[in-house]
Amino acid sequence: MQAASRNRGCHPRRQRGRAPVWLIILLSLLGGLVMYWYTTPRDVPRWVRGWLPGLPEYTGPLYRWRDDQGRIQVTDQPPRDRPYETVQYRSDVNVVPPRD
Fold first, then answer.
1. With contact defined as beta carbons under 8 Å apart, do 63 and 77 qualify?
2. First CA to last CA across the chain, in angstroms?
């Protein structure tokens, strides 16, 4: 009799193994946001880039200059003692020149 009186005022138990709907919606929204940022890395805020796994890097400017032998060099840091040209390129375009 005591067991029956204990269960009268209680709420029915939830079924175990089911996630709440709000949790599924929240995880879906977060997943969509991460996927959007992954496919458009330039739109990702700077503070997020460091902790998203596998995020393609946003490419900054490159610097084209000639060395002492007259060969063209392209680096990500400008040379200190010679003139250089700043080169911007798109990260989604092939930058390798075609074979002749």
1. yes
2. 93
Backbone angles phi, psi at 74, to 5 degrees: -125, 120
Task: Report residue 99 as tokens.
Answer: 């074979």
Torsion angle defined by CA atoms of residues 45, 48, 50 and 56, in that order, rounded to the nearest 10 degrees? -60
Phi, psi of 51 (to 5 degrees): -110, 0
pLDDT in tens, 49-86: 666 665 455 567 889 999 999 999 988 889 999 999 99
CB 31, CB 24: distance < 8 Å: no
In the chain, domain spans? 18-52, 59-93
